[in-house]
Amino acid sequence: MKVVAHRGASGELPEHTMGAYELALHQGADGYECDVRLTADHQLVCFHDRSVARTCVDAGRPRGLISQMTLAELRGLNFGTVERPAGIVTLRELLDFFFDAGGRDGQELFIETKHPNRFGAAVEWELFKELEARGAAGGGGGGGCAEMMRRVHVLSFNPSSLWRFRGLSPRTHRILLRREFQKVMNPALERAGVVHSHGVSLARGKVRPDIIGRFGRGTYMWTVDQERDVMWAKARGVDWLATNFPGMAVQWRDV
C-alpha cells in the first residue's frame, strides 16, 4: 500500500503549499495529491475550493473565486500562516518539484480535476499540455516517456473529465472517485477504457469493503488519518491511501 500526501502534508502545514509537499517528501511519502483549478488567465493552480476564503489568511479574508482572479492577483495573497507566509502553487511548480525532487524512487503524483467550473474542458486541455511538456502524457499518436507516465494519475469525481482526458492522453492512468451515493461504478466506463481504477472514501469503504479491489487496476482511498484506519485499509488491500499525515501513516503502515 502506497501512502499519498493529501494536498501535501496538510495536517501539519497549510494545504497545497510548497512547504506541505516538501515536508511530505522528507517524511517518506510514496506520492502526492493535488487539486487543480484554472485562473481567469488560464493558469492551472493547486487549489481545492472555488473561493480563496477558507485558506487565505490575509486580513479581511478575501472571498474572490479562483476562476475570476488572475495568477498575478493570487500571487499577492498569503495561503500559509501569519508567521510563515506561503504563496499559491501552480501545477507547473508542483510538477517541477515532483520530477526534480519528489519524483525519485518511484513516487507518484495524483492530480484531481475539479468540476463543475466555468471553463469546462479547458481544464483537461491545459493539464494535458503541462504533462505533455514533460513527456508525462501520450497523445492519440503515442509518445511520452513510459516511466513518467506510469507515475502520474488523473483523478476526478466527474466521468466526463476522464472521458476527455482519455481522448487527449489514452495511456494516462485514470481514477474515478466515487461519491457517497454511488452504489456501483458504471461498468460501461471501465469497458470503454475511460476508467482504470476507482477511488472510495474511508467511510464508503467501511460500509462496502467488498468493493475494495473489485474494479479495475487498484483502489485509491481518502482521507485516512488514524492508525486503526491505516491498518484496516492495509489489511483489505487498498493500493493508494491518501492522508493528511503521511509521516505518521508511513510509520503505521510499516509496523
Automatic annotation (TrEMBL):
Native source organism of the sequence: Corynebacterium zhongnanshanii
Q: What is this protein called?
A: Glycerophosphodiester phosphodiesterase
Start and end residues of each GP-PDE domain: 1-253
InterPro entries for the chain = GP_PDE_dom, PLC-like_Pdiesterase_TIM-brl
Q: Per its UniProt record, what Pfam families does this chain match?
A: GDPD
